[in-house]
Amino acid sequence: MHLSATTRILAGLAAGAAVGLALAAIDPDLGARAAAVARPVGKLWLNALQMTVVPLVFALVVLGVSAAADAATSGRTARQALVVFAILLSLGAAIAAVAAPAVLALLPRDALGIDRLLAAIPAHDAATQVPAGVADWITGILPSNALAAAAQSAMLPLVMFALFFGFALVRIDAGRRKTLLDLCHALADTMIVIVQWVLWIAPLGVFALVLVVCATSGFVVLGALGAYVALLCGLYAVVTLLLYPVAVVFGGERLRRFAAGILPAQVVAASTQSSLASLPAMIDCTRNRLGHPPAVVSLVLPMAVSLFRVTSPVQYIGASCFIAWIYGIDIGALHLAAAAALAVVVSLGSVGLPGPVSFMATNVPVAAALGVPLPPLALMLAVDTVPDMVATLGNVTGDMTASSIVSRRQRTADSAADA
Question: How far is the CA of 350 from the CAs of 146, 192, 303, in angstroms?
Fold first, then answer.
């Protein structure tokens, strides 16, 4: 029987937790020796995941800029959809940047348990430091040397360079632009293949990482992962619920009609955990149940599936804030604002990646930009399938909300033209 990657990773998580907790309960010394053996395995797997992030992020941002530019030139409706996507993504990022630190500040922090957990997590390289002052932060946005920024995993300057590169690419000769875009496509595809190889042995890597933390810190790690899952699910639910009044106010929908109209597509999203698989149901709901113009639906919804995931910035910000909470790192408002903007940019270029690939490729840049350690992301990857269902529900709701807003603007423009 063929098991999905998610099922295999969850199996590795469960096995590592069971073995680690059993060793810690039976013989702590034996647990410590087993952790010493497993720790290099987990660290090696984590390094293999991280080594692809810099080239993958650069390629994805350039391709995302190109895709957005192509969509913007295809007509007024497409340009309106892009603006709506950007605004809704920014709204989600802002909510996460405000709510995640506020919620985490209310959680009780067991200092002894957290110290045990941190001792079990693989050591991280502190290559990326967040500038302390506003002036240093501003001057650090643009890299004086793009290659040096990439070598130091300085994600915010690297993404800024990729944005400039992508926008400049749109302005050059079409033949040369196609050559460079083909190169970026090849680079991204190659990195994804490598990540898929690494994820093929993810059960072993996750088993080793979880065994180490469970054998060393006991049930603390399970409580921490549970808090992380609850935080993400809560943030996703808040953003999803806020989309309803957005559709009413800016899309001209009636609340009960909108909620009933999108429900079938939401059921498909929850069962498949795939926005792409939900596309036929979304088209049916928006055209036949909500009455959106077919010309708008046939353009906006496929664009949304290709470019827009409203919960993605929420995940990036929530995960980074949770890591900062674990390590006791205080993140200032300026750095959170920069991370929110970066999350919006990264999310536009990453739609369509396989789930585990997307998780590491997109969370690492935001975490690195905030200067938080990266190793905990591997543990979060192992439990990401739980909040992913809520995230897909939010994404599909966001797609149909965007269709409502663009449809209203289209009807308004048509009425003005007729007058």
Answer: 21, 11, 13
Q: For residues 360 and 52, what is the distance between their CA atoms, to the nearest angstrom?
A: 9
Helices (H), 107-154: 111-120, 134-139, 146-151
Q: What is the CA angle 166-168-173, rounded to 5?
A: 110
Polymer length in residues for the chain: 419
Q: How far is CA 258 from the centre of its chain?
A: 27
Which listed CATH number (1.25.40, 1.10.3860, 2.40.10, 1.10.730) goes with 5-412? 1.10.3860
Domain ranges of the chain: 5-412
The letter for the amino acid at 114 is: I
CA angle 32, 38, 41 (to 5 degrees): 155
* 351 vs 64: CA distance, rounded Å: 9
CA distances in angstroms from 45 to 42, 197, 198, 203, listed in the order given: 5, 11, 7, 10
Amino acid identity, residue 418? D
Residue 272 has pLDDT above 60, yes or no: yes
Does pLDDT of 94 surpass 70? Answer: yes
Q: Please give the C-alpha separations between residue 312 and each of 82, 119, 209, 279, 300, in angstroms, as whole numbers.
A: 16, 30, 25, 18, 19
Cα distance from N-terminal residue to C-terminal residue, the chain: 63
Select from 237, 368, 400, 405 the least CA-distant residue to 314: 237
Nearest to 66 by CA among 184, 155, 157: 184
pLDDT in tens, 114-160: 766 676 666 655 444 554 455 555 666 677 777 777 776 666 777 78
What radius of gyration do the chain's Cα atoms show? 22
Tens-digit pLDDT profile for residues 201-239? 888 888 888 888 787 776 777 777 888 899 999 999 999
Helix (H) or strand (E) holding 16: helix 5-26
What is the mean pLDDT of the segment spanning 70-99?
A: 85
Residue 315 pLDDT class (50, 70, 90 cuts): very high
Residues 363, 359: Cα–Cα separation, whole Å? 6
Angle at 242 between CA 303 and CA 82, to 5 degrees: 25
Measure the CA–CA gap between 130 and 127, rounded to whole angstroms: 10
The percentage of the chain sitting over the pLDDT mark of 90, rounded to a whole number, equals 21
